Amino acid sequence: MTAQLIDGKAFAAGLRARVAQRTAALRDAHGVVPGLAVVLVGEDPASQVYVGSKEREARAAGFHSVVHRLPAGTSEEALLDLVATLNADPLIHGILVQLPLPAGIDENRVLLAIDPDKDVDGFHPVNVGRLALGQPAPVPCTPRGCLMLLKETLGDLTGREALVIGRSAIVGKPMALLLLAANATVTIAHSRTRDLAEVCRRADIVVVAVGRPGFVPGAWLKPGAVVIDVGINRLPPAPGEAKGRLVGDVDFDSAFQVAGALTPVPGGVGPMTIACLLDNTLEACLAAKGLAGAF
Ligand SMILES: Nc1nc2c(c(=O)[nH]1)N[C@@H](CN(C=O)c1ccc(C(=O)N[C@@H](CCC(=O)O)C(=O)O)cc1)CN2
Predict the structure, then answer these.
(1) Which of 44, 114, 141, 237 could cross-link with 276 by S-S, CB 3.0 to 4.6 Å?
(2) Where does NADP(+) bind (predicted)?
(3) Which domain holds residue 53?
(4) ipTM of model over 0.90
(5) Are 148 and 260 contained in the same domain?
């Protein structure tokens, strides 16, 4: 038996369509249009692609969509001024500063400047605290998308042994909190974890976010485990290729033989990130208008 492929691309398309429908209903009933501002500093090629997709998908959902593209040499103070302007803009309900920022800009200071109620990335310390305390908060988009795919695949996660490999603030830590809130038994593994293969073999759910191509081989997996691969790594181009292939943090071919279900790269977790961003923005807009839960 080989693994079921978890189609994040299709799931994300469905989520985007639901956001677009709710957005149209909100506009028709109240004349309110969700506004998303994305800030990109510098010319990182991958970030340019992601920000372009965010702009396009926000428009397609019926949002007021604004992108601020700033040169790499932008000062931290200028960026903070822009964030303050967006915080005060009543047409903007969600603000996202694309990461990574160029060296020399203090990422934590910038994220701290975003109004927590407009922080559709869920990276502000207030929202991190709310998530840790189980209070309503915007949830970081990638782990939120992973949780949706897990629930779609497994249903109730109660009592499942879940392993998160990676402890970043953007993926690993919020992922562990979300799994805990879903009543899974959660282990976080990282670069200092001893005998990772053994820890992995006990897990019903494995979420991998380490940024190392093919890091988890099929031999580490419990047969039937559900594997969520967050990694997006571009390999060097093979002879005759213009661009290298995209691969995940899981060795797909060997994992496919052992896992019960597995996300592909591309087409797994990645598309969920932008779909969840749209959903977080709509929720932020509804909350700002006192309409949470109404659409
Ligand atoms: N402020 C933020 N910065 C970054 C975030 C984030 O959530 N907030 N996440 C990543 C990048 N990211 C969105 O910003 C992102 C990554 C990947 C994808 C995606 O759809 N990937 C495709 C493949 C795309 C390709 O061909 O290159 C896939 O996996 O199928 C969307 C968004 C870092 N920065």
Answers:
(1) 141
(2) 166-168, 232
(3) 31-115
(4) yes
(5) yes
